[in-house]
Amino acid sequence: MSQQVYQFSNTVIDKMKAYYANFLITPPQGALFRAKTNEAVITAYKSGKVLFQGASPEKAASLWTKDAKTAPTQATYSNKAKTNSYAPSPQLFSSNHIGSDEAGTGDYFGPITVAAVYLTKAQISELKRMGVTDSKALTDLKIRHLARDIIQLNIPYALIALRNEKYNQLQKKGWTQGKMKTMLHHHAIQRLIKKIDQSPLDGILIDQFCEPVVYKKHLASEKEVLSPSTFFMTKAESYSTSVAAASILARTSFLKQMDILSEQTGITLPKGASQKVDQTAAVIMKKYGENRLTQIAKVHFANTKKAHAYLN
Ligand code: MG
């Protein structure tokens, strides 16, 4: 059975529902409507995603594609894109697999968070329908909502946060951010593998942040080795729903930590590493002294130095 997925505005979805009024059947949980025609089963979701499945989904979809906001399905990836032996085969994206991703690495304030998520084939389809996709295309609010939905489905995951104090200690010890990320991904994945026990696992996909040889070198420096069937690719969240889900959980965890740190500091900590961040760091230094930054920021970032310019 083939399928096509498109994104539509609410107006178009309302039009579709009216068009299929005589073909409506009971929708699955979370769907706005489901219609069954001779050509296809059409399911519309609150996220604006509409799924066309069945005998000729293209034919059914062709009525609406001119009004679609996005191209069909997810990005395509071919074996030709392989640049190294660690690149996954495209089959992995629809197989039972673990995906991992991180958040907070480019943000001066707040921790680095890493999540690993395990999805079965069936869960991959389910999460796609719910709108779990590349988090870069989603707002923070939407990401938080999707994270709640993912957790409600009892999907196995592992989440690790590297607090700023520990981050700064490791950084002083000579660890690069690459090494920190490597060990966080590794531990999250190991924890998750233990959690899923005997469930079928066809592979592990890490959203690539460094060359796989460098990743292995970092592991070796801590006497660890790469798990079998581990693959790497950049922009993995555009291809793998497990990585997309991991990215959503990591980002949500980062956002929650930022809320907590902001509340404790009594100052809303901005994300990123902009000038606004420099100014906020200066306010914190004035109020609490520079030491306070070691608990809430990645102090080796240039922002710390730049913040001093605001202290007079
Ligand atoms: Mg990433």
Automatic annotation (TrEMBL):
- MF-aspect GO terms: magnesium ion binding; RNA binding; RNA-DNA hybrid ribonuclease activity
Q: Where does a divalent metal cation bind?
A: D101, E102, D207
Known catalysed reaction(s)?
Endonucleolytic cleavage to 5'-phosphomonoester
Q: Name one GO biological process term.
A: DNA replication, removal of RNA primer
Q: Give EC number(s), comma-separated.
A: 3.1.26.4
Mostly located where? cytoplasm
Report the protein name in the record. Answer: Ribonuclease HIII
